[in-house]
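Attaching the record inline, Q. Sequence:
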Amino acid sequence: MDFMDIADRDFLGSREYNDDINNDSEFDSDFEHYVLLSASRRRLFGRKRSLHAILGSPPRLSSLPEGLVVDIVFSITNLLNQLLITFGLLASGHDLNAFLLVTVTLGSISIIDSFLSASTLFYIGTLILLTVPAAYERTEDIVDILIHKALLELNIRYAELMKKFFGYSQQLQEGCISPE
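Structure, as predicted:
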């Protein structure tokens, strides 16, 4: 025990050990007690126990119920199947209006994307999503009147085109819209 300092020799000589270590412990020699106690003094903040003993064992993570996971997987599968069916109907031409709407929308996005970068489009989209609802809320009555007039004008123009190209207009025949 030549490498121990005086305070350690006094400590070991008095045989008064820490509360955590008793005489009937698993350590056989004074040297093992010394190593344990000197290691505890070198720990951060002089703690005697390990962090696991101080903080507790890690929390037990509960697993998800098997039925919940299976239900989520079935829901996602149904959603993907519906999406594939919709894409199939669009691609086969069964719903011409939806096909044309998707084609025009994707074409427009492609043309706009050729002029602007994706980050600029994202910024513009975010700006529109944040400002348009607030502007609409302030001028709701005026905007509703203008949109109603624009839709009425579009319906009149549509009826005139139908009459010009096909010789009749169902809306004009029913008297729903009166051309001016």
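Residues 16-24 have pLDDT under 50 and may be disordered. Residues 23 and 177 are 104 Å apart (CA to CA).

More tomorrow.
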